[in-house]
Amino acid sequence: MRIGVDIGGTKVSCALVGENKTILSKVSFDTGGGRPYTDVLHDVANSVYSVLDQTGYRLDDVEAIGLGCPGILDQQKGEVIYSNNIAWENVPLVKTLQKYVPKEIYVDNDANCAALGEYLCGASQGTSSSITVTLGTGVGGGIILGGSIHSGFNSAANAIGHMVIVSGGMPCTCGRKGCWESYASITALVRMAEEMAEQFPDSLLAEVKKRSGPFNGKNIFNAARQNDPAALKLLDKYYYFVSEGIIDLINVFQPQMIVIGGGISSEGDYLLLPIIANVKKGVYCKQVPLPQITIAKLNNDAGIIGAAYLKGYQATAVNPGI
Amino acid sequence: MRIGVDIGGTKVSCALVGENKTILSKVSFDTGGGRPYTDVLHDVANSVYSVLDQTGYRLDDVEAIGLGCPGILDQQKGEVIYSNNIAWENVPLVKTLQKYVPKEIYVDNDANCAALGEYLCGASQGTSSSITVTLGTGVGGGIILGGSIHSGFNSAANAIGHMVIVSGGMPCTCGRKGCWESYASITALVRMAEEMAEQFPDSLLAEVKKRSGPFNGKNIFNAARQNDPAALKLLDKYYYFVSEGIIDLINVFQPQMIVIGGGISSEGDYLLLPIIANVKKGVYCKQVPLPQITIAKLNNDAGIIGAAYLKGYQATAVNPGI
């Protein structure tokens, strides 16, 4: 069995994952923004022993531990190079955690871990290549090629949200203008909903805003499902932008499958079918079958399960030993 | 030794390539637009025997033959699925050529072959991953990952010119609007030069157009090298668009190297250095070293040498036998 840890901006989750890739026990704690990384990793170590205690297993029963973390990670050194979300720079994750947990420890970007989780036991199981696109606060991605995470030279691949699709367009947090993330994230959907509600003050969309507070993915989709013309128009626009990036990924990579994850992926076919229709029309090569486009299956557990299985699934991984 | 064939829209070149990847003999003929594919392949067969005759070798001395061809190819079936340039659809390349040349024959997209050539004995030799970007009539690309051509599922990867960078922008031949190709190809540079010459009728750029006929890469660059403000402004704009796509490729793939090929790559550092400066400012992850960006080394021979070495360098290749 293995242990997977998902370090997020607000929450850290740690789970013991059994041989059949099911979660046997799980604990979570608040990341606590601004705490020294040593404190956070000390809590991670306690979580590791907690998930073992809960099930009666010992550290010796564990084959490897994996940590997923937002940002750019050096898989070979086991370090966070830079993470905007947790405000970490040059943090020696593996070295620090190994002081408390003498075990093989692997690290990778959280979106890569989620993509690996989906590949191992979720939507993209059995595919030769897949890209998992996470539509959330930003647009994240993980690329699985030939059964391994594609991290690229310098470990810095998979910033798929930072392809420019509208050159000179909306300013992005990365400094460029017009990144896919600025048009296809939930943040972007909410921004466009604000504009649409203002433009159509008599719409259900405008009413939703007044009645139920700020927009989020859920209340926007609910308005559309009630056939509010403003909400439908908004989603058309949103689907267009989501599709633009997916078409780009297909034209360049041609993966066997694109998996759509993130909060709004729970909208299922309502989200998926219009996107597939757009992509079908837009791809460069219409003479070969369209890569499969589907919804993620594992939700939040994808990242934990992927992290647990980093050992053996990183193309460039070097076992850092203990 | 091996034989490489580069089938282009206007010309077909065939060469015998020695063990040290040098060209021992070479012949070319006009493709002859609109001819039946069987005629073209019959001429390819004659070329194969010509390059052997010229050097005194026999077909038995040849390990494998490779064909590079524009368009989408099915490497496993040895077929052209669709090639816009030569107006071929579902052409059984391998099966047809093997009637005349009973040998192992491999096929791939011409830009993939060029990328492989640069990897084997040109600019990207020894890299773990590289993308060769060809700035020509269109924008082509070949992706080498872990020493093999990345063809993607369905063999349709590497349409890197068809990433949208200006959503809703200039119409592209592929049907989308705003593809990178519509801003970064020589065709796009010439289009922008026409506009710039009209806007600045007293510029050297406008004079060049009057004096030396239609624009091409060379006369535009010459005007800029003479510090014509209009030409310099034009190239600034062109470099910006070229850089936008290169940044996208780096953010998504993070290859060890980006190789810039195509006619204007002969401009060398004059072209390269401003692009590198733009890319440096634009990439998502500034905490890791920038992938190397360099100029292609082999020019037109890259495609032939790459084609000759397809055997063993296609990730999904199946030996079609004879």
Describe the structure.
The structure is a homodimer of 322-residue chains. Chain A is α/β, with parallel strands linked by helices. The first copy, chain A, folds into two domains: 2-116 and 301-308, Nucleotidyltransferase, domain 5 (2-Layer Sandwich), CATH 3.30.420.40; 126-295, Nucleotidyltransferase, domain 5 (2-Layer Sandwich), CATH 3.30.420.40. Chain A has helices spanning 37-55, 93-100, 110-121, 181-184, 186-199, 204-212, 217-225, 229-253, 269-282, 301-308; strands at residues 2-7, 11-17, 23-30, 64-69, 72-74, 79-83, 88-91, 105-109, 129-135, 139-145, 148-149, 257-261, 292-295. In chain A, the strands form three sheets. A five-stranded mixed β-sheet of chain A has the order 3-2-1-4-8, with helices on both faces. A five-stranded mixed β-sheet of chain A has the order 11-10-9-12-13, sandwiched between helices. The longest helix of chain A has 25 residues, at 229-253. Chain A is globular. Chains A and B meet through strand 10 and helix 8 of A and strand 10 and helix 8 of B.
Summarize the structure in short.
Chains A, B: One of its GO terms (biological process) is glycolytic process. Two copies of one chain form a homodimer. By secondary structure, chain A is α/β, with parallel strands linked by helices.
| Quaternary structure classification | homodimer
Strand segment tally of chain A: 13
Number of helices of chain A: 10
The Rg value of chain A, from CA coordinates, equals: 20 Å
Give the CATH topology of the largest domain in chain A: Nucleotidyltransferase, domain 5
